[in-house]
Design brief:
This protein is mainly alpha-helical. Helix content is about 60%, strand content about 10%. The longest helix is centred in the C-terminal third of the chain and has 33 residues.
Protein backbone atom coordinates (compact mmCIF):
# COMPACT_ATOMS: atom_id res chain seq x y z
CA UNK A 1 0.00 0.00 0.00
CA UNK A 2 1.57 3.33 -1.04
CA UNK A 3 1.38 6.55 0.98
CA UNK A 4 -1.52 7.92 -1.06
CA UNK A 5 -3.58 4.78 -0.55
CA UNK A 6 -2.86 4.94 3.17
CA UNK A 7 -4.09 8.54 3.31
CA UNK A 8 -7.26 7.64 1.40
CA UNK A 9 -7.98 4.65 3.66
CA UNK A 10 -7.39 6.64 6.85
CA UNK A 11 -9.63 9.41 5.53
CA UNK A 12 -12.38 6.84 4.91
CA UNK A 13 -11.94 5.24 8.34
CA UNK A 14 -12.17 8.66 9.99
CA UNK A 15 -15.36 9.37 8.03
CA UNK A 16 -13.98 12.40 6.21
CA UNK A 17 -15.12 13.09 2.66
CA UNK A 18 -12.49 13.87 0.06
CA UNK A 19 -13.91 17.39 -0.44
CA UNK A 20 -13.73 18.07 3.32
CA UNK A 21 -10.11 16.97 3.60
CA UNK A 22 -9.23 19.01 0.51
CA UNK A 23 -10.83 22.07 2.13
CA UNK A 24 -8.88 21.49 5.37
CA UNK A 25 -5.66 21.32 3.34
CA UNK A 26 -6.54 24.35 1.22
CA UNK A 27 -6.36 22.39 -2.04
CA UNK A 28 -8.87 21.33 -4.66
CA UNK A 29 -10.54 17.94 -4.55
CA UNK A 30 -8.67 17.05 -7.74
CA UNK A 31 -5.34 17.90 -6.07
CA UNK A 32 -6.24 15.69 -3.11
CA UNK A 33 -7.23 12.90 -5.49
CA UNK A 34 -3.75 13.11 -7.04
CA UNK A 35 -2.20 13.01 -3.53
CA UNK A 36 -4.20 9.87 -2.75
CA UNK A 37 -2.72 8.24 -5.85
CA UNK A 38 0.93 9.17 -5.26
CA UNK A 39 3.58 6.61 -4.34
CA UNK A 40 5.48 8.87 -1.91
CA UNK A 41 5.21 12.27 -0.27
CA UNK A 42 7.66 14.77 1.23
CA UNK A 43 7.67 15.12 5.01
CA UNK A 44 6.25 18.66 5.04
CA UNK A 45 3.18 17.69 2.99
CA UNK A 46 2.75 14.51 5.02
CA UNK A 47 2.77 16.60 8.22
CA UNK A 48 -0.01 18.83 6.82
CA UNK A 49 -2.12 15.86 5.74
CA UNK A 50 -1.59 14.11 9.09
CA UNK A 51 -2.63 17.25 10.94
CA UNK A 52 -5.77 17.56 8.82
CA UNK A 53 -6.60 13.90 9.53
CA UNK A 54 -5.82 14.47 13.24
CA UNK A 55 -3.23 11.68 13.37
CA UNK A 56 0.55 11.68 13.54
CA UNK A 57 2.61 11.25 10.36
CA UNK A 58 3.84 7.93 11.78
CA UNK A 59 0.27 6.63 11.82
CA UNK A 60 0.09 7.29 8.08
CA UNK A 61 3.57 5.89 7.37
CA UNK A 62 2.95 2.72 9.39
CA UNK A 63 -0.71 2.22 8.49
CA UNK A 64 -1.66 -1.38 7.75
CA UNK A 65 -5.08 -2.47 6.59
CA UNK A 66 -5.13 -5.33 9.11
CA UNK A 67 -4.66 -2.95 12.05
CA UNK A 68 -7.47 -0.89 13.48
CA UNK A 69 -6.74 2.55 14.87
CA UNK A 70 -8.69 3.98 17.77
CA UNK A 71 -8.27 7.60 18.72
CA UNK A 72 -8.93 8.46 22.33
CA UNK A 73 -8.88 11.93 23.83
CA UNK A 74 -7.09 12.02 27.18
CA UNK A 75 -7.79 14.54 29.95
CA UNK A 76 -5.77 17.26 28.19
CA UNK A 77 -7.79 16.70 24.99
CA UNK A 78 -4.71 15.27 23.28
CA UNK A 79 -5.36 12.61 20.68
CA UNK A 80 -3.68 9.32 21.52
CA UNK A 81 -3.49 6.66 18.83
CA UNK A 82 -3.91 3.08 19.98
CA UNK A 83 -3.30 0.39 17.43
CA UNK A 84 -4.35 -3.19 17.87
CA UNK A 85 -4.80 -6.19 15.69
CA UNK A 86 -8.31 -7.63 16.08
CA UNK A 87 -6.97 -11.19 15.72
CA UNK A 88 -4.63 -10.67 18.67
CA UNK A 89 -7.55 -9.35 20.73
CA UNK A 90 -9.66 -12.40 19.88
CA UNK A 91 -6.81 -14.74 20.81
CA UNK A 92 -6.33 -12.94 24.15
CA UNK A 93 -10.06 -13.20 24.93
CA UNK A 94 -10.04 -16.88 23.96
CA UNK A 95 -7.07 -17.50 26.30
CA UNK A 96 -8.99 -15.83 29.14
CA UNK A 97 -12.03 -17.97 28.40
CA UNK A 98 -9.92 -21.15 28.44
CA UNK A 99 -8.31 -20.19 31.76
CA UNK A 100 -11.73 -19.57 33.30
CA UNK A 101 -13.06 -22.89 32.03
CA UNK A 102 -10.01 -24.76 33.36
CA UNK A 103 -10.59 -23.28 36.83
CA UNK A 104 -14.25 -24.22 36.65
CA UNK A 105 -13.38 -27.81 35.70
CA UNK A 106 -10.88 -28.02 38.58
CA UNK A 107 -13.56 -26.83 41.02
CA UNK A 108 -16.10 -29.33 39.67
CA UNK A 109 -13.58 -32.16 39.88
CA UNK A 110 -12.76 -31.23 43.49
CA UNK A 111 -16.47 -31.15 44.36
CA UNK A 112 -17.00 -34.53 42.67
CA UNK A 113 -14.07 -36.03 44.55
CA UNK A 114 -15.46 -34.74 47.88
CA UNK A 115 -18.86 -36.19 47.08
CA UNK A 116 -17.37 -39.55 46.18
CA UNK A 117 -15.37 -39.66 49.44
CA UNK A 118 -18.56 -38.88 51.40
CA UNK A 119 -20.39 -41.76 49.79
CA UNK A 120 -17.71 -44.32 50.69
Amino acid sequence: MNIGQKIARLREIRGIKQADLARRLGVTQQALSKMENCESMDDERLERVASALEVSPDVIRNFREDVIINNVNDQNNTVINYQFNPIEKIVALYDQLLATERKRIELLEAMLKQEQEKNR
